[in-house]
Write the structure tokens for this entry.
Amino acid sequence: MLHSILILGGTAEARKLAERLAGDPRFITTLSLAGRTRAPAEQPVPVRVGGFGGAAGLAAYIREKGVTILIDATHPYAAQISRNAAEAAGLANVPLIALRRPAWTREAGNRWIEVDSITGAVKALGETPRKVFLTLGRQELLPFEAAPQHRYLIRSVDPVEPPLDVPHAIYLTSRGPFAKASEAQLLAEHGIELIVAKNSGGPSSYGKIAAARQLGVEVIMVRRPVLPDVPSVEAIEDMLAWLDHAPAPLK
Ligand code: NAP
């Protein structure tokens, strides 16, 4: 019997995993996106977009579509959907496996200040006006209005609309991956003193961290949220190996 796989995605890894599963005759694969970006990257398998309506809604979707394996390949900061996935897998009685990229670890020369939240990051900027590069999701920018004394460089996939209510902000729209050399150039060009980032892990957004180390720029790193304790792998190859031995679907 075929497996019907639902990948909860929104990450480069989810897309790469879908690419590997697309032509596999053992699986019918669907990718689910939250719908956060206006023009999401092209995907190699059929896509559904938007929330399910909590864990119960996701469980109902799993039952209705006959999903037999749930893969949580969401962003490490998307904790709510990961909690929903854990609960829904239990409710619908399907196996769940998470694809979780390891966090970046501090290396010699890194100047990191770790904080627990975005509000913590705003506080860590301090009172003195600084030149700050914000590499956060659009939805996470509002708290920086409480610190209008800084000059902000803000990069996001889609435009920040409306713009922040601060006197000095430059907006860039672009989608990664970002290489170390171009990130170093950007930091130098704007005289950046501090970066606010999430510990996303993986190579595609590491360029800014490597560039910051090279230039001695400080990074205020927002710690990862706690995710549910479910079976997980770190690499696509390990996920494929797990799928090779996946339990037969329940009738
Ligand atoms: P979240 O707080 O975990 O999820 C909020 C709600 O969005 C979920 O309860 C669910 O709605 C819906 N949702 C999230 N991912 C979904 C998916 N793959 N398919 C269908 N519905 C999904 O996540 P978030 O609000 O998207 O983001 C939180 C953090 O993750 C931010 O830091 C953001 O920058 C980062 N991030 C997210 C994504 C992404 O694709 N989601 C990508 C990159 C970075 P229902 O409860 O209605 O099902």
Notes: The chain has two domains: 3-102+226-244, 112-222. The first strand starts at residue 3 and ends at 8. The two ends are 9 Å apart (CA to CA).
